[in-house]
Design the sequence.
């Protein structure tokens, strides 16, 4: 899903299922690449911190 369409995905898929289902789990796989690597401060202070606040379960993190 293109990142600019994530709100459409939320409105058109997540919300209707959330209203209809007894339980809804969402699994998301992300890939972010930058030739010289992603900034560690962005990964820690933004991404990982937000995931902690959301109580997201991170099953795999791979830095290449």
Sequence:
């Amino acid at each position: 899903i293109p990142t600019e369409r994530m709100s459409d995905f939320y409105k058109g898929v997540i919300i209707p299922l959330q209203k209809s289902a007894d339980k809804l789990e969402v699994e998301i796989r992300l890939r972010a690449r930058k030739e010289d690597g992603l900034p560690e401060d962005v990964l820690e202070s933004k991404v990982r911190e937000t995931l902690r606040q959301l109580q997201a379960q991170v099953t795999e993190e791979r830095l290449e």
User: Anything to note?
Assistant: The mean pLDDT is 93. The two ends are 23 Å apart (CA to CA).
